[in-house]
Amino acid sequence: MLYSFDASSIIHFYDNYPLENPHLVSLWDWFAEKIESGDFVISKRAYDEVMHKTDRLPEWFTEINIFEDTIADLKEAQRIKELLEIEEEEFHPKGVGENDIFIISISKRLNSVLVSNESQINKPDLKKKYKIPSVCNLPEVDVECINIAELLRRNP
């Protein structure tokens, strides 16, 4: 199974499972192995967000396969923006941003499970306020989205 990551999930993983904790060494070894095997990937946009928000990640994290935007991703991102009724660059501060839409588009292209630690228990009435999981769950988008806890449950 291929998993792609949103920046929120990588930062959540690092913040809640610190590298310095000797009890978590095997967890980080497993994560590194998944990166090395190509099972864990990331979009360039999410990677840049992670690197902008933290400099504490291990060196081997830079070995993760990084996917750039393509024309197909641009078209899919535009389609998703239209589904969310986002005109021009009028993103709602409580909803997805441009990077989020591209992260979803790339996950769809790769047919990967998107790992995001954004949450949205109740879908807002205004589609512009949808966060990543709500956008992924739209039937017209159809990208499986899970959080870090679910990723760990699926990969014992």
CATH superfamily: 5'-nuclease
Structural class: alpha/beta
The 3D shape can be described as globular
The overall average pLDDT, rounded, is 92
H/E order of the elements? EHHEHEHHEHEH
Number of helices: 7
Low-confidence stretches: none
Q: For the largest beta sheet, what order do the strands appear in spatially?
A: 3-2-1-4-5
What is the class in the CATH system? Alpha Beta
Count of the separate structural domains = 1
In CATH terms, what is the architecture?
3-Layer(aba) Sandwich
Helical residue percent?
Answer: 40-55%
Distance between the termini: 14 Å
Radius of gyration: 15 Å
Oligomerization status of the protein chains = single chain
Extended strand count: 5
The share of residues in extended strands comes to: 5-15%
Indicate the CATH topology.
Rossmann fold
Instruction: Tell me the major beta sheet.
Output: 5 strands, parallel
Describe this structure in words.
With 156 residues, this protein is α/β, with parallel strands linked by helices. The protein contains 7 helices and 5 strands, in the order βααβαβααβαβα. It has helices at residues 7-16, 25-37, 44-53, 71-83, 98-110, 132-136, 148-154; strands at residues 3-5, 40-43, 65-67, 113-115, 145-146. Strands 3-2-1-4-5 form a 5-stranded parallel beta sheet. The protein starts with a strand and ends with a helix. The relative contact order is 0.19. The mean pLDDT is 92.
The gist of it:
By secondary structure, this protein is α/β, with parallel strands linked by helices.
Q: How would you summarize the topology of this molecule?
A:
Blueprint: E1 3-5, H1 7-16, H2 25-37, E2 40-43, H3 44-53, E3 65-67, H4 71-83, H5 98-110, E4 113-115, H6 132-136, E5 145-146, H7 148-154
Parallel strand pairs: 1-2, 1-4, 2-3, 4-5
Helix pairs in contact: 1-3, 4-5
